[in-house]
Amino acid sequence: MLTDPKVGAIVFFVADLARSLTFYTKTLGLPIQTHDGHDGPWAMGQVGELALVFIPRPSKAGESPVVVFSLDGGIDDYADALAAQGVEIVVPVSEAPDGGWSIDFLDPDGNVLSLYQAADAPRRK
């Protein structure tokens, strides 16, 4: 289904954004920057081509981290295909913190996966 799949990001839901940023920047030495989004503050850093995203939100086991696959467009088509195959959609296609689009769904073991595309990519191919 995914053509040339790439993991573009790993999203961590964190209880305390400041505490997590201290750990990832001071303990691990990763460059991370904070941002203000439509749902409040969040942070992101790059490790090579992989983005690490930190969103302050309580989570249960299995909800974090979320592996995010990058799309070059067609997110609504992927959402339709997942639903047609009986995949449980956790969060339907919605606006991502940076203005792009994402959808969250479960794998057979209940792990959250996500698809993401930039805002300027077509939602249908």
UniProtKB/TrEMBL annotation:
Annotated transmembrane regions: none
Lineage of the organism: Bacteria, Pseudomonadati, Pseudomonadota, Gammaproteobacteria, Lysobacterales
Residue ranges of every copy of the VOC domain listed in the record: 6-118
InterPro entries, sorted: Glyas_Bleomycin-R_OHBP_Dase (IPR029068), Glyas_Fos-R_dOase_dom (IPR004360), VOC_core (IPR037523)
Species assigned in the record: Luteimonas galliterrae
Protein known as: VOC family protein
